[in-house]
Write a structure and sequence with these properties.
Length: about 240
Amino acid sequence: MSVAPLSPDELETALRAIGAERYHNRHPFHRALHDGKLNKGQVQAWALNRYYYQARIPAKDATLLARLPTAELRREWRRRIEDHDGDTPDTGGIARWLRLTDGLGLNREYVESLEGLLPGTHFAVDAYVHFVGEKTILEAIASSLTELFSPTIISERVSGMLRNYDFITQETLAYFTPRLTQAPRDSDFALAYVKEHARTVEQQNAVLNALKFKCSVLWSMLDALDYAYVAPGNIPPGVFRPA
Ligand SMILES: O=C(O)c1cc(C(=O)O)c2c(n1)C(=O)C(=O)c1cc(C(=O)O)[nH]c1-2
C-alpha cells in the first residue's frame, strides 16, 4: 500500500506536533531552571554546558553554508553565522553568552577551555554538527526548525529566572533578547524552504525525523545536566564542580 505525501500545510502541522511533544521546554531540568528550583551552582552548570552549543552553532552553520548551491541560500544562511560570531570582537551571540557566564561568576578562560563540559553535552552537540555535515541539505535545514519553538521557551525562561533568582539580572540574560527576533526570522525561512522542497513521502519522513533528532539533541543536553547536577553524587570525574 502506498501512502500519499502530505500537503505543505499538513507537513507544517506534523512538524509543530513534534515540537509540542518533544521540545526541551518539557524537560524537568528546564522547568526546575525557570521555576527557581536550582541553586546557583546548578545554574552555572547549565550556562557552562550550554556555552558549547552556542560556540558550535556557527561551525554547524558554516558546514551547511559550504554545501548550499546558490548565492541566495548562502546569503540567508550567512546571517546566522554573523549573528553568533558578530562582526567585531565582543559582539554577537557567543560574546553575549560569555556575559551570562561572567554574570554567574564563572571564569571566562575556564568556560572557553571546555574543560568543565559534561561528556553528554559534548556528544549531543557534536552529533548535531555531524548531522548537518552528513545529511541532505533538506534534512540539515529541517534540523534547525526547533527554532520555531524557541521564542516561547526563551520568554518563559527569562521571566522565570528574573523572578526566581536574586543572582540573575536583565543584563546577564541579555543574550536572549535578540533571539526573540532572530529565531522567528530564521525559522520562517527554514519552514518555507522545507514546505517547498519536501514533496515526496520519503523527503517528508526525512524532514520529520530530522526535527525529532534535533529535539533529542536538546533533550539529551538537559538529561546530562539533570543526571550530573540534580541527582546527588553523579558528577562525572574531571568536569565542572559547583563551589
Ligand atoms: O534557548 C533555547 O532554548 C534555544 C533553543 C534553540 C533551538 O531550539 O535549537 C536555539 C537557541 N536557543 C539559540 O539561542 C540559538 O542560537 C540557536 C541556533 C539553533 C540552530 O539550530 O541553528 N538553535 C538555537
